[in-house]
């Protein structure tokens, strides 16, 4: 696939580096020549310094032969204009990163499609939705629904009191024989492990589980986790993510919003009705204590600074807050942040990559999720009527190293497959795979 990425910072840089592992022809257009020099040092991608709204620059990038055009600059107007131009000049599919969630209404989507913008992604809106979902599910560090919840991915941090520590996968299955989950991966010390029957769980592991509905009580039992009733929360940062999350949460729980910028406080005040807004520095521990942080159930830090978000979450944890969520934009901080005790990491690069990924792999991909702390992803595929996978059992498919099938959805039925099961036409299949294995797996379902 010929892909053009138009960016002006780390999101475009991250996408470009990630996609190099999938064997696509990638060209990066960026006005920042210094960033391009860094990219050229780390990859063998073609780079062009210039504006993606320039027809001449787009022609130089061979936009007329482009299968997928991604515009992920910080300025949504440039992204939209770039996609319109790219489409007119021959790009087959265009995707624009936006910040104004109002554009995601069906009316606006249809209008922009008529202009040539095929898809729009708002990472801030998705991040805010993830935050609100996580507060409703205090057991998992991360979770993601497939096919409207027929199957769900849970990321569980195994602490010292978990009953499965020092048990193998086989022992887990034997001990909890009614547990309807499939363990698709373990993240241990920064390494992604696809477990086999003799893999032993260790303290500190992050276990990725695929679960059928109504299994949350069983997951709590094996993980040693307990529900946390979130009645009071504090959000640090009144940027788009903080405001979007506050709008969803303020009528459900008692909410306080901290923001250092007076202008942002005023903007938030115009949008929010039931949120206490405080103009102050959340790194000021005494101020947090004055505002009752020790009585807060959840602390969410989503400022523009990853360092501030990590630091304030650690302070909150030390002061007794049960649930912490941090926006961490530096992907190098993700594993470290998880290791030092922050419950959940939100990252806009991973959110954008998750949205875009299904347009890149072969086959009919429905949904995808790039996973925090690892370069692997979960993807949901529609199985074609003549797909290779329908002619063999899962055991006979010879899945590539670094891939496993986590679940099957057949109509309204969710299935945790065995190796002797056969996939049928029109099934939906949930696959966990490292980047180099994903396209090979996808071909099985075409």
Strand content: 25-35%
The end-to-end span amounts to: 16 Å
**Spans with pLDDT under 50 lasting ≥5 residues?**
none
Mean pLDDT: 89
Residue share in helix: 25-40%
Principal-axes geometry comes out as globular
What structural class do the secondary elements suggest? alpha/beta
Explain the overall architecture.
This protein has helices spanning 10-19, 33-42, 55-60, 76-88, 106-115, 123-136, 169-175, 216-223, 240-249, 262-271, 285-290, 306-318, 334-339, 348-357, 435-443; strands at residues 2-6, 25-30, 46-49, 68-71, 94-97, 119-121, 142-146, 151-157, 181-188, 191-193, 206-211, 232-236, 254-259, 275-279, 298-301, 323-327, 344-346, 364-370, 377-382, 403-410, 413-415, 428-433. It has 446 residues and is an alpha/beta fold. The protein has a 6-stranded parallel beta sheet, sandwiched between helices. It has a 6-stranded parallel beta sheet with strand order 14-13-12-15-16-17, with helices on both faces. It has a 5-stranded antiparallel beta sheet with strand order 7-8-11-9-10, with helices on one face. Helix 1 (10-19) links the parallel strand 1 and strand 2 (25-30).
